[in-house]
Amino acid sequence: MSTPETQTTDRDAAFEREALPWIDDVYRFALSLTRDEADADDVVQDTYLRAFRSWHTYSQGTDCRRWLFTICRNAFLRSRERVQPTVELDGDEGKDALAMGALFCEAFDAGYDDLFARLDLAPAIERALRAVPEPFRSAIVIVDVEDQSYDAAAEILCVPIGTVRSRLFRGRRLMQEQLLAYARDAGFTPRARNHAAEHRHG
Amino acid sequence: MVEIPRERLPGFPVDQCYEAFEHVWDYLDGRLPAPQVSDLLAHLEICEKCRDFGEFQEAYRTAVAALRERTSAPPALRDRVRKTLASETGRERW
């Protein structure tokens, strides 16, 4: 029979094993929400304290990162006293998808169709992500950066899956608009393209 | 659903190209239903510009996913969290 002491030790060990290894992920998510390193530190500390205190509500062996992200988002909202949900804009994935098609045409014409394969783009991607407004930024961070599922994103953000999808379309479009503008402003060298390929694409 | 513009984008002549703008992302996200996957892949097989569009989106996703490797929790924050947990539990070390 386990004593209260061994239960406490087991709880601490489980928390250390399952929750603490996600601190980098929680920090990145907190930073994407706060856009300020000191504020992100506070949110992460609050997240881990709240997670520890409510560890009994976590089902061990399930997705601990998803659980921590949910706590992190709530900790952030509390820190900003923004407990009311943000006003949702009407999703129009079709319009955003068409805009991405048009952006691709622009990128192709400018010789930037290899833009995202360029190694020197990473700092610009970070800046672009910080500039994407909420609620689109969180969707991008959870799905595109942290590689979580739509289901996880819906649970963390407390929205339907369809809303996650429409936020992703808008967020990705905004990211690509910014990155293409950055490539132009920074004078990225257009990709050398052979004439035959250009002719083929018309 | 993508509304097909009156003046079509250069290199994207058919209706399926405009469906592909939306379906490529559902496919990359693993959320496109199987029958539509077949339709999309069949279209990409014959439409080079849509294939390039898909590769462009995939490269975007790879580049954004790489941010994951660029940022980690600072050591001071790790210490702070461990100290908070130590203080909460009365354990000396975390």
Task: Please explain how this structure is put together.
The complex is a heterodimer of chains A (202) and B (94). Chain A has 202 residues and is mostly helical. Chain A is 68% helix and 0% strand. Chain A has ten helices and no strands. In chain A, helix 2 runs parallel beside helix 4 (64-79) and helix 3 (37-53) crosses helix 4. Chain A is elongated, with a radius of gyration of 21 Å. The termini of chain A are far apart. Chain B is an all-alpha fold and 94 residues long. Chain B is built from four helices and no strands. Chain B has helices spanning 15-28, 34-46, 48-65, 75-89. The longest helix of chain B is centred in the middle third of the chain and has 18 residues, at 48-65. Chain B is elongated. Chains A and B meet through helix 1, helix 2, helix 3, helix 5 and helix 6 of A and helix 1, helix 3 and helix 4 of B.
* Helical/strand content category of chain B: mainly alpha
Largest sheet of chain B: none
Query: What is the H/E string of chain A?
Result: HHHHHHHHHH
Mean pLDDT of chain A: 87
Secondary structure tally, helices of chain A: 10
First-to-last CA distance of chain B: 52 Å
Mean pLDDT of chain B: 91
Give the SSE string of chain B.
Answer: HHHH
Largest sheet of chain A: none
Q: Roughly how much helix do the residues of chain A carry, as a percent range?
A: 55-70%
Compute the gyration radius of chain A: what is it?
A: 21 Å
| Count of helix runs of chain B | 4
